[in-house]
Specification:
Oligomer: single chain
Shape: elongated
Order of helices and strands: HEEHEEEEEHEEEHEEEEHEHEE
Radius of gyration: 23 Å
Structural class: alpha+beta
Number of helices: 6
Largest sheet: 8 strands, antiparallel, barrel
Strand content: 25-35%
Distance between the termini: 32 Å
Helix content: 10-25%
Strand order of the largest sheet: 1-2-7-5-6-4-3-10
Length: about 350
């Protein structure tokens, strides 16, 4: 376990250490000085390999989006390039010209990585140095899920703690058009150049130039925005379909003050366990996308444990059940494994469990 941890840390350090570099202003426009920025803002990034359309999430990352738009409106990105490209990880740009000369930037901004947005494939996040609050103009686009879930690296760029590497990298938007262009950039041939990355070949043999980045009127890209919303709805539907397939009805879900949701599929007739009692259960757990991560049913062996020895969502949920009952628990991340996650469970994951309470021991 120690060796695995050390190898994981080394791999993470090598790949993440250079997600750094630049500076920007942490002052958002004063009220009345400029028009209010909408919750979602759209920009088109024109590159030498094609166009990328990005949705910026001002609702979740207001300081970061305001900073990025200052650079966009000032035409800062024109003539910069994607100077660091690592297949199966990310593509990074926004601070250097084709000669690897850094452009002068504004002051660094505060890291908003605590906003709950995850470093998933095709999201855009701010690059920075080892100082968590050092981001300026440089950004990167994730080309895989860098939330700790992707094999084989399991790199987690999300926020997990307000110290050291735990600060994570702030996601402030996502690509909604030109994913194929992102893929082209990721697949461009690279060579070793310490100016791009001292540990791995990452410098494109043919520079991938950012010709311009400009704001886009959302009315002109209605189809792309609609497709993005449909994709989000499809992800939500996966969870609803899973719950329905297990006999659950969200209209009958009870939500507690903690945020736990419970649906009683089969009402029990026995007693309810107290927080200090031991129980015997059968269970299966899924992520909201329907991916199963654990099941005592599949192992053919019920699980026994004290209710004060498990995640808070289980302690609370089983306390609302009766022996002989079967329920679905929808457990938010803060009642499960939180920002740390665990093998097979990405950080900040909502979990769904089907639990049958067999006995109180």
């Amino acid at each position: 376990m120690k060796l695995y941890f050390l190898l994981g840390c080394l791999a993470l350090a090598l790949l993440v250490s250079n997600l750094s570099f630049a500076t920007a202003d942490d002052k958002t426009p004063a009220s009345g000085d400029k028009p209010k920025i909408p919750d979602m803002v759209y920009v088109r990034m024109t590159t030498s390999l094609g166009d990328i359309v990005i949705e910026l999430n001002n609702l979740k990352a207001p300081m970061t989006v305001a900073n990025f738009l200052e650079y966009v409106d000032g035409k800062f990105y024109e003539g910069t390039m994607f100077h660091r490209v690592i297949k199966g990880f990310m593509i990074q740009g926004g601070g250097m010209d084709t000669e690897y000369k850094s452009k002068p930037t504004r002051s660094p901004i505060k890291n908003e990585a605590t906003n709950g947005l995850s470093n998933l494939k095709y999201t855009i996040a701010m690059a920075r140095t080892g100082d968590p609050h050092s981001a300026t103009s440089q950004f990167f686009i994730n080309t895989v899920d860098n939330d700790g879930s992707s094999q084989p690296r399991r790199i987690n760029l999300n926020h997990s703690s307000p110290s050291g590497n735990g600060w994570g990298y702030c996601v402030f938007g996502k690509v909604i058009g030109g994913m194929d262009v992102v893929d082209k950039i990721e697949s461009t041939p690279v060579k070793k150049d310490d100016r791009a990355d001292p540990s791995t070949p990452a410098a494109p043999e043919t520079p991938v130039v950012i010709k311009k980045v400009e704001r886009v009127n959302p009315d002109s890209i209605k189809e792309l925005i609609a497709a993005a919303r449909a994709a989000e709805k499809a992800e939500q539907q996966k969870m609803l379909d899973l719950i329905k397939s297990k006999g659950g009805d969200m209209d009958k879900a009870m939500k507690t003050s903690s945020g736990l949701q419970i649906i009683h599929v089969v009402e029990g007739t026995g007693a309810s366990p107290k927080p200090t009692e031991r129980v015997r259960v059968h269970y299966t757990g899924w992520l909201t996308n329907g991916s199963k991560f654990d099941s005592s049913v599949d192992r053919g062996q019920p699980s026994e444990f004290g209710l004060n020895q498990v995640i808070r969502g289980w302690t609370e949920g089983l306390g609302l059940m009766k022996v002989g009952g079967k329920s679905l628990l929808i457990i938010p991340a803060d009642l499960a494994y939180g920002a740390s996650g665990r093998p097979g469970i990405p950080p900040n994951s909502t979990l769904i469990f089907e639990v049958e309470l067999l006995d109180i021991l």
